Amino acid sequence: KTIMIATGNMGKAKEFAKMFAKAGYQIKTLKDYPELPEVAETGQTFEENARLKAETIANLLQCPVLADDSGLKVDALGGMPGIYSARFAGEHKSDASNNAKLLHELTDVPDEQRTAQFHCTLVFAAPKKPSLVVEAQWPGRIGRIPKGENGFGYDPLFIVDGLDKTAAELTAEEKNEISHRGLAMKKLASQWQAWLEG
Ligand code: ITT
Ligand code: NA
Questions:
Q1: CA gap 144, 106 in Å, rounded
Q2: Protein residue whose Cα sits closest to atom 7 of ligand 1
Q3: Interface pTM, i.e. ipTM
């Protein structure tokens, strides 16, 4: 059994692979279909962008497709980088560049004002079906130095609420239990099989 995920982000793909393996599914991603066109993320919200990715690829492949649009909302930055999280430091820049920019923007922001949330919207699309949409958030705050080797993106700077650890100091299993993506997947898990068959 295979699920197609419209992502080119291998950090996300690794997390989905682990979560779907528990349900007995393998995943495929955009890396398995190099001939597919790139879907421009022209939406103004996480949901619009997740819909664009899932619905475009579902129509092209004529099969069910899951997409994730996610990002980090920093309160002291008015919710930025938000939907621009992947390209905060510019198109095709590294996670390290995005993290450096985030630290720079928060240089003068005191600890108690460094609150933030990761957001994840998942859209499951299939030809001739209304899409299934779920979302979840994960609260934390932005540290002053990157810590931890696991995960991807902003994980080394994201200090998890209630734990004295960054998301990058959690194992993949621990992160999936509590993260924005893990929580959104739990919401999806209770709905998607009925949706697919319906
Ligand atoms: P796809 O659109 O191909 O899935 P992307 O990386 O461009 O990949 P998004 O537009 O959804 O995906 O941007 C999400 C960005 O938000 C991601 O690149 C990270 O910088 C950040 N992000 C999302 N979830 C994260 C997580 O669990 N840990 C760390 N950073 C995360
Ligand atoms: Na996006």
A1: 9
A2: 86
A3: 0.98
CATH fold, domain 2-197, is: Maf protein (3.90.950)
Between helix 10-22 and helix 180-189 the angle, nearest 10°, is: 40
Q: Which of 32, 68, 69, 155 is catalytic?
A: 69
- Give the ligand whose atoms come closest to the C-alpha of residue 9: 1
The closest ligand to the CA of 88 turns out to be 1
The pLDDT tens digits of the residues spanning 147-182 come to 999 999 999 999 999 999 999 999 999 999 999 999
On the 0-12 / 13-18 / 19+ scale of CB atoms within 10 A, 125 is buried
DSSP H helical ranges for 144-191: 172-178, 180-189
Q: What angle do CA 138, 30, 122 make, to 5 degrees?
A: 30
